[in-house]
Amino acid sequence: MRKDETLEQINNKGTQKAMTKEEALQLLTEIEREINGIIIGQEQMVRNLLIGLFTEIPYSFKKDAGSNGHRGGCAHIILEGVPGVAKTLAVVAISNVIQAKFQRIQLAPDLLPADIVGTRVYDPVTGIFRVEHGPVFTNILLADEINRATPKTQSALLEAMQERQVTLGENTFKLDDPFWVLATQNPVEQEGVYILPEAQLDRFSMMLKVGYPKHEDELKMLRIDIGGIGLKPLVQPSAVIEIRRLIRQTYIDERLREYIVRVGRATRNPAEFGINSIKDAITVGISPRAYHHLMALSKTVGFFHGRSYVMPSDVKEVGVQALQHRIIRSVQAEAAKLSSDKIVTEILEKVPIP
User: Fold this and answer.
1) How far apart are CA 24 and CA 148, in angstroms?
2) Which of 168, 193, 214, 260 is within CB 3.0–4.6 Å of 147 for a Cys-Cys bond?
3) Torsion angle, CA of 89/148/140/98, rounded to 10 degrees?
4) Is residue 83 part of a domain?
């Protein structure tokens, strides 16, 4: 890559021939810089969101006509935090920068599954049913305040998130690629919320707990003329697929695969690994699906650090976000106010790397 080569030239070249690792890293750096210019004080949230967007999660063995048989999608993410900490704004900013189709759903108790996936409508003129697609047919779907919807409505996203398809009546419709679900939720301590079922939580690759910015960052926000800020479109959605392909080739050693499995098994039986301090803190540990998600996310973290291989620090960097929402705490842990992220942090520290 030449030093005088512009991002526009790289982006256009990516649509004509395979993008190189160096070009992909330059694009990722520019995307992150552009978003951080408008989302002040939430650099870690922005980085984790981009990790989710560019992580390829395998989801099916089915083959599409004309494809190489490999099916993968983005890593879905839950963002938990109080209102006003830029959760929604960050997602909107990313959709603008990658020029993706974007839909937002405001979840509420009276929302129906058909309001998300669509429905069949009878046409009296033709005498047949036609299909009306819902907002799920997009590149980026933001489900705002997902835990304010009823469990029946929440479950409407299950097939879309796992299979990247929607079944309406006897017809099945494949969703666009990239397809990325981001859900914001209020802390479970608030009133009027429905806790997400375990089956749906397990389909989210990461949970990001978003807190308040630092004092100096909040002061910086007040100095910025929000109305005068604009986001520069940098890539097309097709570039996301191309970068995901490069990241999938990141090497991970067999010993790190063994470490991921050990971490997972330690969530089911901490005492087996000598972690007696939390042996009664977990009722249900993580699923084998979580292994694939954690490994894929670790590859993306390594790629963001400019490497073509995964290090143990990459697994630990994303481990809490990938696992904290997948474990079910015991009554004793809840009474002691032992949070899931602290439990996962201790497991990551205590489980030895092979």
Assistant:
1) 38
2) 193
3) 10
4) yes
**In a shared domain, residues 32 and 151:** yes
Find all residues with CB under 8 Å of 94, minimum gap 6, and list them: 31, 35, 49, 50, 53, 140
Q: Tell me: the pLDDT tens digits for 249-287? A: 999 999 999 999 999 999 999 999 999 999 899 999 999
Q: Sign of the C-alpha dihedral, residues 250, 305, 310, 46?
A: negative
- What Cα–Cα distance (Å) separates residue 165 from each residue in 67, 157, 160, 175, 221? 17, 10, 5, 5, 40
Q: How confident is the model at residue 229 (pLDDT cuts 50, 70, 90)?
A: confident
What's the CATH number where 73 sits?
3.40.50.300
Residue 270 belongs to domain spanning: 250-350
Considering only CA atoms, which of 245, 281, 272, 310 is closest in space to residue 56?
A: 245
What pTM was estimated for this model as a whole?
Answer: 0.89
Number of domains in the chain: 2
| Helices 312-323 + 254-268 axis angle, to 10 | 30
Mean pLDDT of 316-341: 94
**For residue 264, is it within any domain?**
yes
Looking at the chain, the whole-number percentage of residues with pLDDT higher than 90 is: 63
In this structure, is residue 209 part of a structural domain? yes
Residue 206, classed as helix, strand or coil, is strand
As to burial, measured by CB atoms within 10 angstroms (0-12 exposed, 13-18 middle, 19+ buried), residue 7 is: middle
